[in-house]
Amino acid sequence: xxxxxxxxxxxxxxxxxxxxxxxxxxxxxxxxxxxxxxxxxxxxxxxxxxxxxxxxxxxxxxxxxxxxxxxxxxxxxxxxxxxxxxxxxxxxxxxxxxxxxxxxxxxxxxxxxxxxxxxxxxxxxxxxxxxxxxxxxxxxxxxxxxxxxxxxxxxxxxxxxxxxxxxxxxxxxxxxxxxxxxxxxxxxxxxxxxxxxxxxxxxxxxxxxxxxxxxxxxxxxxxxxxxxxxxxxxxxxxxxxxxxxxxxxxxxxxxxxxxxxxxxxxxxxxxxxxxxxxxxxxxxxxxxxxxx
Length: 292
What we know:
single chain; alpha/beta; seven-stranded mixed sheet
């Protein structure tokens, strides 16, 4: 293996992303716009039936097994973080990029007694299972009853974890719900929940997330789809995301960016979300602390 240059993970992005090098030094982790890289053409067969925050729509997706969001496992990035690969070794070697990446060992809250994690739109429950390895309680929620039943059934087949696992039927936006009674939460993890919501609900997501988090709690975001270029964008889920968009959404609600990886290495992304799959979209990672 040839000798590699060791760079911080957020500095080791492709040349088109070099403007992010100074991003973490600003007060709010200000993100500069990504230069145009490619033109992407896409279609979305679900666009004609999607009408936003609609329980019937999601129930139908589950009933007809139209679950293209299901990657069959937790994100490789979350696996690395939860299982301490970065925290213990402080590095990750990318075979595909032939490069060694360094990650801040404080990349995620360490968890511990009485800590709670919440995963909105948890799907089959892969992240619920994984986060229960680190947190005392890991709670997933979904808007569709069939989805909740599938997640509960899948979790029942998995090995026991140090933390308690559960999945509840709940509307993330409903005040004084079961989510409020189980909270507050030390960590809320979003992976394709926000991008599935209509854009007019995004600001409400930011407010609600801040409300559910404990003081100094953190929102961990695995951001997808990040589409580089000026090609057509889908009009239905998943709605395109960028780290800049996330910052503009979250900072006014009291969040500050404390860690950011503009584009994840292929090994830390799902294979369909590493720039080579659907929409040619990449994945990114950011961590947001809330001050209350």
